[in-house]
Design a protein that fits this description.
Heat Shock Protein 90; five-stranded antiparallel beta sheet; about 40% helix; Rossmann fold
């Protein structure tokens, strides 16, 4: 509050030094229309500020077209003829330099001032007014360039709602002042007084009483009265009050409900009423000014006499007087009403719900046995903590990785799966936990994800545990965008046990297939033995020339190689091996599979045909793909056997980035029920296909394992079948052509060109029939200093007394093994080259080399293999002798 204001000189100074507030136009030299906004009151007065907001809501975003110059008359504090004269001088000075295209005047004082100077300052200027109380057409009857919006307060509506909410009220206490606006308020209320018969209207002129007198009078009013608060700024003592200050002082002592016709008065306990809005007044005036600027003449625009009003109430005041919201008119606005948590935080609420739903969907897809433990949501004020709890307690590993591959955070399950703590993993790069062989495909998929080509991807991948062991995981990766940052969200599920069981299943099915191949293998091996026996008997009972004996021995040598090849193929198929992809010729692999079943196919009258290009290579795990075709051939035989004859045809071609293979038979085909179950584990139809040649009950796992193997390679397996007309299986396998093909060295064996006559060679094998011929072979090859022994203990004596340069050492001997002798040699740091020998097929040669062996030779072997070993070890022995 300001006391004893004497500001004539001050107003003059302000008028000269700071006459207006200019709202800047957009930068640049674009031509704009200058518009003067003349306010009756001062900046900071709520009604004026809200009028300004309404004007700006229409014109501010068009600042390239309109340049607003805002001027405040401050008439509620002081307005006299002298101040009007000073203002007119200041405006004349401004308008001499600036050409204003239009004048927007707000409230009664500004309109009155503009009218008085319409033939001087504002001659021929279009003038638009707003916020005019007690408007009548006489105000502008001789002013054709003026139009605007009247501030028609609905005093009647405010009184009606007051009497409705407080039916015991009999008196209306009207508060206003001597300002132009205040007088207009008094006149407006008097016009509607007659519409409320039986109600007493008391008029209190704030300008004729002090604030204390007004407060005491308000305090004396009881429940039989309602107060209509309109205008009140300068009291009878000349003291000035701001809107907020005046309302607050009056409302402290008010026991009767207070209503108003102006939305800016609803504060500090004022109940409300049917009010006019300052923002609406400013916006309506600005729209009319915009039409004038577009060429419409002011006289052509209808004066708005009935601007919109709305019922507006203060929630706290309603609660104070016990007024339920249901008693308010329909469509009423209630301000200061407490907002529910949901309405205040709706965007945050919806964001959290969407994230939780996506996370729940991903968890369900990855693991059918994961039970969603949290149902429903807690209060949204705890939503962030709730999301963190879900992240940390998820039954699968969840992480956040930045675009560089650095781990931002992981949950407890993620870290435990790999043997770390969450803190240890933060800051690591995901490449540190990836198996290098799996990294390229993972990086390719991540690159596609970041480019937007895919929304997410799922792979089975190996990860490195902290202790160095391998952990198999099902990996799903999707994107998370936080502002401008893009993160990858990996979700891991431990499938190590699942992979172990899959391996056992595949091994079991391999052994089952080997059992089914046994008859064919036995037949082949008996043929070998028959040839060998016949040749030996022939040599024993007939006198043969040296040439005939050589031919006979060559035949025996071929049969030995043939027998070794049969055993090697069978054991190679049956024994477990780590998954290892390499390039191989598809046709060669198919012939190997066929050779194990060829004899049985002949007995079953089945004609096989392989139509595959010679140079067609496939990069995959050879042993697993081999198992697929063993199973498919067996299934085809079972389907054909009940017909008594048939054919199996295999064809292949390159297709896209892989190879498409078709296995076709003309067996009994499949009915619709069988088609639905064909890849289901333990489903079999083979019991119905037994005949005198093929008494086999199927395990029901063959095609299930085939499907699993093909999918592990990223491929697909399907079929075409018609009952009675045969079946065709179609297999597509992606070809990793970036890996080098597995080629065989086809170079001919070279004759040993080095001199080995000085080498001391020891042959150690507890089988004399192996030991002595090998020693004689070495002697024939030039190793003149060759000794042989059947006793491993005697061999140790030879090694101590006269260490040889090279030892051919059997791995499996009675008393002491070859590996134990090798350990003795290395412990004593003997400078001896050792080549181990064995008939076992599952020997880990790399492991033997780590133990110190120079090489390994697989039994049975002949002269050429021995020669190859000598070729391989000669350089090492020669350099050692130097």
């Amino acid at each position: 509050m300001k006391k004893g204001i004497h500001i004539t000189a001050l107003f003059l100074l302000v008028g000269i030094l700071f006459p207006a507030v200019q709202l800047p136009a957009a930068s640049g030299k674009v031509s704009t229309n200058d518009i003067m906004v003349l306010h009756s009151y001062n900046q900071g007065y709520l009604w004026t500020d809200m009028e300004t907001d309404g004007i700006l809501s229409v014109l501010a975003h068009k600042s390239s077209l309109y340049d607003l110059h805002v001027i405040y008359m401050d008439s509620k504090r002081l307005r006299t003829k002298e101040t009007d004269g000073l203002l007119a001088q200041m405006l004349a000075a401004k308008m001499a330099k600036t050409h204003y295209e239009g004048i927007l005047v707000c409230d009664n004082d500004a309109l009155e001032f503009a009218r008085e100077h319409r033939n001087s300052l504002f001659k021929d200027k279009p003038v638009v007014f707003c916020g005019i109380n007690d408007f009548n057409h006489a105000m502008i009857s001789d002013w054709p360039t003026c139009t605007g919006v009247a501030e028609t307060q609905d005093y009647k509506g405010s009184c009606e709602i007051g009497f409705k909410l407080f039916p015991n009220a009999r008196k209306v206490f009207v508060i206003s002042d001597d300002s132009l606006t205040g007088k207009a308020h008094f006149e407006g209320v008097k016009k509607i007084e007659a519409e409320f018969p039986g109600k007493a209207f008391v008029y209190w002129n704030f300008s004729q009483h002090s604030m204390d007198e007004t407060v005491n009078e308000i305090a004396s009013l009881g429940s039989d009265s309602i107060i209509l608060l309109l205008s009140f700024f300068k009291d009878g003592k000349g003291e000035m009050f701001s809107l907020e200050e005046a309302v607050q002082k009056m409302m402290k002592s008010a026991r009767a409900p207070v209503f108003t016709g102006n939305d800016t008065r609803i504060m500090f306990g004022v109940v409300g009423g049917k009010v006019v809005a300052a923002h609406d007044q400013g916006a309506l005036g600005a729209r009319m000014m915009e039409q004038v600027m577009q060429g419409v003449q002011p006289g052509a625009l209808r004066i708005i006499l009935d601007p919109p009003t709305r019922y507006t109430f203060d929630y706290d005041a309603l609660v104070r007087f016990g007024i339920p919201l249901s008693s308010l008119p329909k469509g009423s606005i209630v301000i200061n009403k407490p907002s529910s948590f949901y309405s205040v935080n709706k965007p945050l609420f919806m964001t959290i719900i969407i994230i939780l739903m996506l996370l729940a969907i991903i968890v369900v897809v990855l693991s059918a046995y994961v039970v969603q433990k949290r149902k429903g949501q807690k209060a949204l004020r705890e939503s962030e903590e709730k999301f963190r709890a879900v992240f940390e307690q998820a039954a699968v590993g969840v992480g956040q990785v930045d675009s560089e591959g650095n781990i931002v955070r992981v949950n407890r399950k993620y870290a435990e799966m790999l043997g770390y703590t969450p803190n240890e993993m933060e800051g690591m790069n995901f490449r540190q936990i990836a198996v290098p062989d799996d990294l390229k495909e993972t990086l390719d998929q991540m690159d596609r994800l970041l480019k937007g080509e895919i929304k997410d991807f799922t792979l089975e991948r190996r990860c490195l545990h902290k202790d160095g062991s391998i952990v198999w995981v099902l990996l799903n990766v999707s994107l998370l965008r936080i502002g401008s940052e893009v993160y990858q969200v990996p979700i891991l599920q431990d499938i190590t046990e699942k992979k172990r069981l899959e391996g056992q299943l595949i091994r079991s099915e391999k052994l089952s297939a080997v059992g089914q191949l046994a008859a064919g293998v036995a037949h082949e091996f008996n043929n070998v033995l028959m040839v060998m026996r016949g040749s030996i008997e022939l040599a024993a009972w007939e006198d043969m020339s040296r040439k005939e004996l050589r031919e006979l021995f060559e035949l025996l040598e071929k049969q030995v190689d043939r027998g070794r090849d049969i055993v090697s193929k069978t054991m190679s198929f049956a024994r477990p091996k780590p998954v290892s992809k390499c390039a191989f010729k598809l046709k060669d692999m198919l012939y190997e599979v066929l050779s194990l079943q060829l004899e049985q196919m002949r007995l079953e009258n089945i004609s096989p045909e392989i139509d595959v290009p010679e140079d067609l290579e496939l990069c995959a795990d050879r042993d697993q793909i081999q198992q697929v075709f063993v199973n498919l051939f067996l299934n085809a035989r079972h389907a054909i056997c009940q017909k008594g004859f048939g054919s199996i045809k295999v064809s292949a071609e390159r297709f896209g980035k892989g190879v498409s293979i078709r296995v076709k038979d003309n067996g009994v085909g499949m009915n619709e029920d069988t088609k639905k179950m064909i890849f289901t584990p333990f489903f079999t139809t083979k019991g119905a296909f037994a005949n005198n040649l093929l008494h086999i009950k199927g395990s029901g796992l063959g095609l299930s394992v085939c499907d699993s193997i093909v999918r592990m390679h990223g491929g697909q397996i399907g079929f075409e079948s018609q009952e009675g007309a045969g079946t065709t299986f179609i297999i597509y396998i992606p070809d990793c052509r970036n890996e080098a093909g597995a080629g065989k060295d086809s170079a001919d064996m070279k004759v040993l060109e080095i001199s080995v006559s000085d080498l001391k060679v020891l042959v150690v094998d507890d089988e004399p029939d192996i030991c002595l011929p090998l020693a004689r072979t070495l002697t024939h090859l030039g190793c003149k200093k060759t000794r042989a022994t059947f006793s491993p203990f005697e061999a140790l004596t030879y090694i101590q007394a006269d260490p040889p340069d090279l030892i051919f050492l059997d791995m499996m001997m009675s008393g002491i093994s070859g590996v134990q002798i090798l350990d003795r040699i290395r412990e004593e740091k003997k400078n001896i080259s050792v080549v181990l020998m064995s008939g076992k097929l599952d020997v880990d040669v790399d492991e033997l080399k780590k133990l110190g062996a120079m090489g390994f030779i697989q039994k049975p072997f002949g002269r050429e293999e021995v020669k190859t070993v000598l070729e391989q070890v000669k350089d090492s022995i020669s350099s050692r002798k130097k």
